[in-house]
Amino acid sequence: VNGSVDVVRRFECVCCTDSFKPEEVLRAPCQHYYCRTCVTSLVKACTKDESLFPIKCCKKPITATSLRSHLESDDLRDLFSLKIIEYNTPATRRVYCPKTRCSTFMGSLPSSSTREMTCQKCHAQACGICRGTAHVGKDCPQDKGCLEVREMAKRVGWQTCPKCMAVIQRVWGCNSMVCKCGTNFCYGCGATMLVCKGSCAKSAAY
Ligand SMILES: [Zn+2]
Ligand SMILES: [Zn+2]
Ligand SMILES: [Zn+2]
Ligand SMILES: [Zn+2]
Ligand SMILES: [Zn+2]
Ligand SMILES: [Zn+2]
């Protein structure tokens, strides 16, 4: 016996109970240890189930930074970072890709200046007001500014196109109107001509 025995401290993972070198484990605030494999499966589960966020041990949250540095894959690290942003955004302000097959989280509802949001994954556009598919070249039906214009238009007797909701003021002529979007509608009742066929009561009044 030469007297200089190297004793390397080993740490036991609370999940799998295997022992690891100090640099291989994450130390939780409660002084419990987790190996990389167990951190990875915890984080994986958390990206699929929001109720597991934030990840805790003994009711004390483990910081995202230490979790991230103990993950086994870069892809999971990126996904986890995105999920943290998503989970920290109030559910009522989360915008998801309108393409149901994609449904990627696109961020928080923007300030009123940005109308359209683009999905980083499939490049689909979402409306930054109603969170649905972007209304290319049209106003959002839920846009407050537009709602006010429409209310005002109704008061003064203007019509809105039943398809694109553009406000239209009739200058002269008959009730059959053609909007700039190509929709032919009745100025009397506001329905498309296919529906009204010029037969509504208001149509006769003009
Ligand atoms: Zn483990
Ligand atoms: Zn613990
Ligand atoms: Zn998408
Ligand atoms: Zn919209
Ligand atoms: Zn129109
Ligand atoms: Zn009509």
Automatic annotation (TrEMBL):
Residue ranges of every copy of the RING-type domain listed in the record: 9-206, 13-50
Keyword Transferase belongs to the record: yes
GO terms classed as biological process: protein ubiquitination
Catalytic reactions of this protein: [E2 ubiquitin-conjugating enzyme]-S-ubiquitinyl-L-cysteine + [acceptor protein]-L-lysine = [E2 ubiquitin-conjugating enzyme]-L-cysteine + [acceptor protein]-N(6)-ubiquitinyl-L-lysine
Gene3D superfamilies according to UniProt: 1.20.120.1750, Zinc/RING finger domain, C3HC4 (zinc finger)
Superkingdom classification of source: Eukaryota
Gene Ontology molecular function: any one: ubiquitin protein ligase activity
Its EC number(s): 2.3.2.31
Alphabetized UniProt keyword annotations: Metal-binding, Repeat, Transferase, Ubl conjugation pathway, Zinc, Zinc-finger
Name this polypeptide is given: RBR-type E3 ubiquitin transferase
Organism this protein belongs to: Laccaria bicolor (strain S238N-H82 / ATCC MYA-4686) (Bicoloured deceiver)
Source organism phylogeny: Eukaryota, Fungi, Dikarya, Basidiomycota, Agaricomycotina
